[in-house]
Amino acid sequence: MTTTREATPARRRPWTQRPLWQIGLASALVAAAASVAVYVAARAAGVPMELTEVFENEFARMPVRNMAFAALLEGGAAGTVLALACRRWSGRPRVSFVALATIGLIASFALPVISDASTATKVVLSISHVVVAIIIVPPLTLALPSRSTGQRQEELVAGSDRGGRFIGWLRGRRARAGR
Question: Does the pTM of the predicted model rise above 0.70?
Answer without folding.
Answer: yes
